[in-house]
Amino acid sequence: MTQLHDLRLRLLVQQESERIADSQLDGLDLSVVQARCLCWLALLAEAHEDQASDAERQGDVEQAMSWFADSMRLRDVIQVVGSIEIPLPAALDPDDSGSDGHRDHGSRRGPWVA
Q: What's the whole-model pTM score?
């Protein structure tokens, strides 16, 4: 059963990777990848919190704590992924003077990072 799960997960990751590549015809936009990761991680964390609530309602405190701990780890990962600074594309870089041929690739943080 575990092998089937691993195979399914690999297939889903491959499909999502292909969707990202197909949607980025001019090259890979890392900010899009970051945003998609954050969306999926948030959904996964929410699902774990729901599982924790269900387990608690059923009186399975140990399972509830396990689901809750997983959701907290996912929230930590969300913070790490959200804190990754993605360089601005050259066309959008306000610090790109273009006069000396050198570009100062500034960085930005997503709106989800405080």
A: 0.63
